[in-house]
Structure formats: structure tokens, C-alpha cells
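Try this one yourself first.
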């Protein structure tokens, strides 16, 4: 298990790369280079921060990965509303 200093250092290194990962273009990315999310496992016995870092180390790019043969690109709106907030608002509008 990583120490707090090691977890913090890893978090800083990952943070530096996130901007680069976010800019991945699905039209030009090599699908063979992407991790299949079906092969990623979440170790629920780890503390929250360590669990997140473990996930990031496995998925390599949280913004662009594949599910089977399908390339998946994830993006987020610059807002304080959570997905739960948006889903609740949508369901109440039905």
C-alpha cells in the first residue's frame, strides 16, 4: 500500500497529465492503445483517494478508453451541478 506522500506525489503527476488526456481526439486515437474499461477493477477496500488513483493507473486515460470495440470519449461541463442534480431535474420534467 502507498504512503500518503507517495499517493500525493502520484496525484500531482496524474494532475499534470489530465489536460493532455482530456484533449485526446477520438478520430485519431489508436483504439489498440486504449484500455478496455471492462478489464478495470475497483478495489473497494482502499481508501477513497487511493481507490481513485488505482483506477486512474489502470484506465490510463479517464477521458478516452474503450468498451469492447467502442471508443468512449468522456467530457464534463464547467458547472457546479452534479450528474445526480441533472438527472433529478430531467426526471421531474417528465
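Now uncover the answer:
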Amino acid at each position: 500500500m502507498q504512503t500518503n506522500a507517495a499517493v500525493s506525489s502520484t496525484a500531482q503527476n496524474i494532475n499534470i497529465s489530465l489536460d493532455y488526456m482530456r484533449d485526446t481526439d477520438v478520430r485519431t486515437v489508436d483504439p489498440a492503445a486504449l484500455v478496455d474499461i471492462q478489464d478495470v477493477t475497483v478495489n473497494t477496500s482502499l481508501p477513497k483517494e487511493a481507490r481513485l488513483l488505482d483506477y486512474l493507473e489502470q484506465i490510463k486515460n479517464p477521458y478516452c478508453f474503450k468498451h469492447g470495440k467502442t471508443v468512449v470519449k468522456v467530457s464534463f461541463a464547467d458547472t457546479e451541478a452534479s450528474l445526480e442534480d441533472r438527472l433529478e431535474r430531467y426526471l421531474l420534467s417528465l
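Discussion: Residues 4-22 form the longest helix (19 residues). The helical segments are 4-22, 48-59, 83-93.
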